[in-house]
Amino acid sequence: MGKSPALMIILASSLLFHQTLEAVNGARCFGSLDSNSSYAQNRRDLFSTLANDVVTNGGFYNASLGQYPNTVYALGFCEKYYEQKACLRCLESLALDTETSCGNITKSFVWSSDDEDRFWCLVRSSNQPFGNLELIPPLIEADPDHIEPSKDMTLFMQQWESAVNKTLETATQANTSSVHKYYSAIHAHFTEFPNVNMAMQCTPDITSQDCKQCLGDCVEYFREQFRGRAGGMASFPSCLFRWDNVTSMPALPRPPAQEKRPSSIPEKKGRSMHRGIITIIVVLTFITLLVFIGFYKVRARKRKLNKGINLGCAEYSNSDGQFMLLFNLDMISMATADFSPENKLGQGGFGTVYKGILLNGIEIAVKRLTRGSEGGIEFRNEVSILTRVQHKNLVKLLGFCNEGDEKILVYEFVPNSSLDRFIFDEEKRSLLTWEVRFKIIEGIARGLVYLHEDSQLKIIHRDLKAGNILLDAEMNPKVADFGTARLFDTDETRDETKRIAGTRGYMAPEYLNYGQISAKSDVYSFGVVLLEMISGQRNNSFEGEGIAAFARKRWAEGRPEVIIDPLLIENPSNEIIKLIHIGLLCAQQNATKRPTMSTVIVWLGSHSQSEDDTMSMSNVFTELSCR
Q: Gene3D superfamilies given for it (predicted)?
């Protein structure tokens, strides 16, 4: 990682989480803004017993409460060698901070310490279950004091790195089943510097490999951000790294008390006096540190207000109260090497997509709208929709930039590009086995069910096609490009428009001819994409009439296998023909006769479909074809 301004490192990591809010009391609040007060109440109810549950269960506890969409997941954790009173005090304080700071915001995390005993604890809340590695957002703090400039910093960093490697190796060995299995703390002796205390801790719900990655990223953030400082901490929701110069303040938790040998009265008096002196030093140092931190935060706030430093991002709230992340144009330009042609991933109707790499090495996809184009409506539409929906089969919008005449959307990077790059390529199509194709078809269907029925909004995509389906590293599909999508009220079933947007061949006839929009419009498009997946050919490759019309004729002739990709010839033809059948039912001319996407999911889920089920579907299709 090259040299760069320190604040840019913090920004690069901060931009990776969706719809972030920074709370005044230290809790990081992010995710969507739930307008239903039930969510906040469920979190309060969980938090009311969380501290006691953590202590009762040995230092770690997670639970959930409430019904979807107001289900709350909460997690509490106390560092190894915690004392019960300190753990309780620490967790109760963080729970209160979270409730005060985050309101109805759906996700939060905060690592902090009990000021009296220096034990660290964690409180998290989310609208999704825990158990996966969480690297966003970061939380980094540093000692305001620097290592003496007269010292050899090269030697210091060598010894510091050695201590880091030793601590990291021990923390990730996970040779115990304890909830504190990922823990390590050392007291490192330096040659010509004050000795260093260092500790690392991961939550027990992730793997050893994930713990290693999490702690490694913590170290990297701190190294680049606060090189030369006398101590500090870096944390993510899944882990914590901290270290400090032993002359500044104690960092390591005290191990369990051990039996002491008898000693003489003078020795006890000497130890008491020694402890008294240390206590005074610690208290004075702590007060001084608080003053420095307060001074630093006041100055930082002033610089931000005066625009003395461009932090590169901010939170923006639209009229619906939805929070979005604003990207700095310089940051995006740096990530894409000033929109270098070498980083170009593709060209769309309203702009160009580039690959970018943030300063911390995380990859992103950047869609830069063509200057002066008519893409302003699409830009606002995509930001408005994707900041309010989240599903594994929908592409994730990380943020956007709107500076001058630049309109830019920033997404998660999906390494396998779009589906059309595979299914219509003679060489790559061979990688799409029937199992992979079925997984992609089912994933697209699940994404549409979420848009039509399961999200808080009702969304009609209007431009579903192979080019708008992205594939991640494991070939999981993600529906993308919501620039032309239309929001519906929950009780609204159809609408009309004079502005036809989408791609011919995938548009439902009632939409193309009369501007009538409904969820059944997307069902039609899905049917076309499904048939393309089975044939391996583009929609317009079938005698100029479209794949749906061509397949319908072959079905009527009793020869549906004609459209099956020759690469699939050794696969179970009855299952493939079943999906041809589903595709034809979706791509019917009459919108009212098309199934819903939830019905399609049921059909797709019955791999071993009974003969009666097959006959039922055939009767439906035959009946509809005759009308």
A: Gnk2 domain, C-X8-C-X2-C motif, Phosphorylase Kinase, domain 1, Transferase(Phosphotransferase) domain 1
- Contact, 141 vs 120, CB < 8 A? no
- pTM of the full structure: 0.51
Residue spans of the domains in the chain: they are: 17-134, 135-255, 271-306, 313-412, 420-626
pLDDT value of position 253: 55
Same fold yes or no, 17-134 and 135-255: yes
The DSSP letter of residue 256 is P
Q: Which residues are catalytic?
A: 463
Sign of the dihedral defined by the CA atoms of residues 550, 553, 554, 560, in that order = positive
**Residue found by looking up tokens 């499904």 in the block:** 530
**1-46 per-position pLDDT tens digit:** 443 333 343 344 443 333 333 333 356 787 766 666 788 888 999 9
Residue linked to tokens 């702690």 = 215
Distance CA 325, CA 398 (A): 7
Q: Which CATH architecture has domain 420-626?
A: Orthogonal Bundle (1.10)
Question: Given its phi and psi angles, is residue 431 left (phi above 0), alpha (psi -120 to 50 degrees) or beta?
Answer: alpha
The CATH classification number of 313-412 equals 3.30.200.20
pLDDT, tens digit (0-9, with 9 covering 90-100), for 179-228: 888 998 888 888 767 788 889 999 988 888 899 999 998 888 787 766 77
CA angle 260, 262, 265 (to 5 degrees): 120
**Six-digit token pair at 209?**
């490999």
pLDDT tens digit sequence for 549-579: 999 999 999 999 999 999 998 777 889 999 9
Greater pLDDT, 251 or 499: 499
pLDDT of residue 228: 72
Half-sphere exposure of 106 (CA within 13 A, CB side): 21
- pLDDT tens digit sequence for 134-157: 887 778 777 777 776 556 777 888
* CB atoms near residue 371 (< 10 Å): 11
457-472 residues labelled b (16+ CB within 10 A) or e (exposed): ebbbbbbbbbbbbbbb
Q: Answer for the pair 147, 153: CB distance below 8 angstroms, yes or no.
A: yes
Torsional sign, CA 259, 261, 266, 271: negative
Provide the edge-to-edge strand list for the sheet that holds 183-188: 139-142, 231-236, 239-245, 196-202, 183-188
Q: What is the pLDDT of residue 178?
A: 79
C-alpha to C-alpha distances, 445 to 393, 448, 469, 523, 573, nearest whole angstrom: 9, 5, 11, 9, 21
| Bond before 204 cis per omega within 30 degrees | no
Residue 367 assigned ligand-binding role: yes
- The pLDDT-based confidence of 492 (bands split at 50, 70, 90) is low
| From the candidate CATH numbers 2.60.200.30, 1.10.10.60, 2.60.40.420, 3.30.430.20, the one assigned to the domain spanning 17-134 | 3.30.430.20
What distance in Å separates the CA atoms of residue 508 and residue 465, rounded to the nearest whole number? Answer: 12
